Amino acid sequence: MYYGRTKGHGHMDKMNFEIIANRINYTPDLGYPEYAEQFPKRYEWTSHTISHNTVMVDLSAQNGTDYAGYPIGYEDGPVVKYIEADDPSVYDQTNMYRRAMCTVETSPGKGYVADFFRVQGGSAHELSFHGGEGNVSVEGIELIPQKKGTLQGEDTEFGRRKDRKTVMFDFSLGRGNGYHYLYDVAKAEKPCGYVKLTYCIKDTWAQRTGLEGKPYLDAYFLTETDRTVIAKGQPPVNKIGNPPYLYYYLGRRQGEDLKSNFVSVYEPYIDNSEIRSVEKAPFKDAVDEFEAVCVKVTLTDGRVDYLFHSLNEETSFTVRDGLEFKGRLGFVRFKDGRILHAFLSCGEYIKAEGKTILEASVPAVTGYTVDFQKNPDSINYIDVAIRENTLPKSLPDLLGRYIYIETKRPGNAVYQIQDIQSGKNGKFRIIIDETPIRGYKNGVNGKDGFSYRFEEGAAFTIPLSFSL
Prior knowledge:
Layout: E1 20-21, E2 24-25, H1 40-46, E3 55-57, E4 70-76, E5 80-86, E6 96-107, E7 110-120, E8 124-130, E9 136-139, E10 144-145, E11 182-188, E12 195-200, E13 215-221, E14 227-233, E15 246-254, E16 259-270, E17 275-280, E18 292-299, E19 304-310, E20 316-318, E21 323-335, E22 338-352, E23 355-359, E24 364-372, E25 380-386, E26 402-405, E27 414-422, E28 427-432, E29 437-440, E30 450-452, E31 459-463, E32 465-467
Antiparallel strand pairs: 1-2, 3-8, 4-5, 5-6, 6-7, 7-16, 8-15, 9-12, 10-11, 11-14, 12-13, 13-16, 14-15, 17-18, 18-19, 19-21, 20-21, 21-22, 22-23, 22-32, 24-25, 24-31, 25-28, 26-27, 26-31, 27-28, 29-30
C-alpha cells in the first residue's frame, strides 16, 4: 500500500495498493505514461486517481502531496499482517482518507487481503479497483451494457473531453473525472451491498513459466453503493507487452457530508479458492459501520475467520455470533468450535460468549516526548516519559516495534525502535532508525539551525500486539 509523496512525477494515487503473489502482480499499476509531455491521457487517466486502486472524491483527482501520509499501525504476525495510514490532505474537503489492509494466511503461501477504506467529507466517493490482464465474471448484481461511448456518456468517445479545446492537456481545466477513458461500460444505477468479481488472470509477463496452475483473483465488495460499473481501462499503448485493456470495478456512494467505509476482501490463488463465503458479521446492537466493522470469512475446510476493525478503541462491540471485541484490530479463527488462532493489535480483549479468548494487559504504551537528537548524528534518539499505567512488563518487547508521535507539521513522525534504555526520573531513551530532523530551517543551509518532525512534549503511542 502506497501512502507516499505524489507531486512531481508521481501519480495521484495515495493509498493505492498492489497484490503480488504466486510470482505475479494480480493488480498491476498502469506504470509509465505513453509520453512524459503535456499529453491528455497522462494527466486525465494514467496518473489520475480513477485508474488506481483507491477512492476518488467528488469526481476529481487527488491533490498532489509533498509529504507521505500518516502511518497509524503496522504488524507482521505469522498469520495476520497489517498496515494502516491516513492522509486527508489529498482532498480539500476530506477530514479522513484512511485505509487499513490486512493479509491473513489460510495455509502456507496462501491467504487473502481484507481492506477497510474510510473516507469522510465531500458528496461523492467512488472506489476504483482493477485486476491484471484477463476476463472477469460478476456475481451479486445484474449489469446493463451501455451501447456505445464511455462512462462519461454514450455521446462521449474514448479520450475525448468536451471542454478540452486543444489536443494537449489544458492545465486550467484540471484533470477531470477520467470517465472518458473507461469504455465497454456495463453498469447498474441502483443500491448494491455485495459484488463478487472473479478475474481469470493471464501471466502477462511470463513470470510463471514452467509452473503449473492457473492464476485467479476473487474480489468481494461488501459496502452498499449507489452505482456499480464494470468497464475497460487502457494501459499505455506504446509499452511493449502491455495488455490492450484491464477490467475496472467502480463502486460509487453519494450524499451530503458523506462518510464511507469501503470494506473489501481479495483472494489471489492458483486453480482453487480456499474461501467458501465472505460477509459482514452483523453486530448485536446498532453500530455505525464507519466506526466499526467485522468481516466473517468461511473457508472451504470449515474454518471460520472473524476480523474486527474499529476507529473507537475505547468501545466494545459484540456481533450476533457471540464474539465481543474492544480495540483497533482483532482476529479469531475457529474450527468446529475450537479456537485455532487469535490476534490483537492495539486492542484490549476478544471474548466469546463472555469468556475471554485473548486479553492485553497493556494495549499500547503512551506518553510524551521530553528531548530528542537535534543535530546530525549516526545515532538518533528520543527521550520520553511513559505513562506509568502503560509501562510494558518487558522493555525488550518494544524492540522492532514503532513509535507514532503526534505532529502538526507536514509529514509523519514514525520511527522503528532499535533500542530502549531506562533513564533518570522515570524517563526512557529510545534509539530510533532515522533522524528527527526534517531539514534546514531556512531551506538553504544549516547556519539558522534545523526544523524537526515533531516538538518536545508531543504525545506518542507504541501499539502492542498479542496472539494466541
